Amino acid sequence: MKRLAFIALVLSSGCATVPPTNVHQPMTARPAPRLDTMAGNGAIFRASNSRPLFEDRRARYVGDTITVNITESTSASMKSNDQLDKSNTSTSSINALAGASAKSLLGLNFNAGSTNSFNGKGNAANNNAFTGSMTVTVIDVMPNGNLLVSGEKQVAIGHEQEYVRISGVVDPNYVDAFNNVASSRIADARIEYKSAGQISDGEAMGWLARFFLSVMPF
Fold first, then answer.
1. CA angle, corner 140, sides to 137 and 146, nearest 5?
2. Pairing of strands 108-141, 186-197
3. Residue-wise pLDDT tens for the chain (218 aa)?
């Protein structure tokens, strides 16, 4: 029995685990049933399955979908240059001293000098680009009409799992007639791209190495 448990533990350690996420939960939501006030009247018209004739098809209810066009691009740079110079010079001489022969002190001089110089430079740059599109689900409707959306896309390539997740608050006024919205129009946006598998595991530092790295004083 212990042998079987050990084998199961070894096999489970080799399986890819789902990476943690910071997006709003849940990832999706089913639409709430709409009550049919005219049920059982034998008519073709059903209030639960109808929308006003002149109403567009923009997402506005829990369970509706919105396509997010991801166009994230960030660029930041910093450059600093510091320079400091300091110089000191002192000169003194003794020609005569009471009680001592002038010949013994003749030519006695004292010279001192010091020079300090500091020059420091620093450069930092960061560029990120993330483009694509995916469809998310409305998981909540706020009192002011804004939509809280969240969604996930999973792509399996060989032994590697790719996860693209998006969540945030969308103003319905920014959603076009085809239910598309740009990621720059999403408030409190949380966009992430993570992977799980052999490649991502190989890039991670082992727990024992992290332990020694955290306790070493130098």
1. 95
2. unpaired
3. 555 444 444 444 445 577 788 888 898 888 877 665 555 555 665 655 556 666 677 888 899 999 999 988 888 888 777 766 666 666 655 554 555 555 555 555 656 666 777 777 777 788 888 888 999 999 999 999 999 999 999 888 887 888 899 999 999 999 998 899 999 999 999 999 888 876 666 666 666 666 667 776 65
Phi-psi region of 42 (alpha: psi -120 to 50; beta: other; left: phi over 0): left
Is the previous residue joined to 26 through a cis bond, with omega within 30 degrees of 0?
yes
Sign of CA dihedral 206, 212, 215, 217: negative
DSSP-based three-state secondary structure for 96:
coil
Contact in structure between 169 and 190 (CB atoms under 8 Å): no
Q: Exposure pattern of 142-164 as b/e (b: 16+ CB <10 Å)?
A: eeeebbbbbbbeeeeeeeebebb
10 CB contacts (<8 Å, ≥6 apart)? none
Work out the angle at residue 37's Cα, subtended by the Cα atoms of residues 31 and 38, and round it to the nearest 5 degrees: 120
CA angle (107 as vertex; 104, 113 as ends), nearest 5: 130
Backbone phi, psi, residue 164, to 5°: -120, 120
pTM of the model: 0.61
Ordered by start, the domain boundaries in the chain are 56-86+126-218, 87-123
- Report the b/e string of 176-186 with b at 16+ CB within 10 A: eeebebebeeb
CA angle, residues 136, 139, 140, in degrees to nearest 5: 135
